[in-house]
Design goal:
By secondary structure, the protein is mainly alpha-helical. It has one domain: DNA Binding (I), subunit A, CATH 1.10.30.50. Helices cover 38% and strands 9% of the residues. Strands 1-2 form a two-stranded antiparallel ribbon. The longest helix is centred in the first third of the chain and has 15 residues. The protein is flat.
Length: 107
């Protein structure tokens, strides 16, 4: 499935953000963040340091539904931005392939 941002109106995005704000106040969300663990990196950062992230971003056609919302640390959420899950995984894989700065690269 391909998402085209030009077909998503600002009104639709505003409506989905409002749904997300309501879900953030729900018991469902409080249970999701209870462990204080980031969905992406698995670090325990504490529930107060978690943000709500849309797996499929609103700008790419995602909705504010329980199956599309995950708790994320601020660092992961900022890095992920508007990426789809497959693009995020490709990004993470590319980081693992890069040599560490300052390490020698044997040829």
């Amino acid at each position: 499935m391909v998402f085209h941002a030009e077909y998503i109106t600002e009104q639709e995005i505003r409506r989905e953000k409002e749904k997300a704000r309501r879900l953030r106040k729900s018991q469902w969300w409080h249970r999701r963040i209870a462990k204080g663990e980031c969905y992406y990196c698995g670090r325990r950062v504490g529930r107060e340091n978690l943000t709500m992230d849309h797996l499929v971003p609103l700008s790419r056609g995602g909705k504010s539904k329980k199956g599309n919302l995950v708790p994320a640390c601020k660092a992961c959420n900022t890095k992920k931005k508007y990426l789809l899950p497959v693009e995020w995984h490709e990004y993470l894989a590319s980081l693992k392939k890069r040599p560490l700065p300052g390490s020698s690269n044997p040829q």
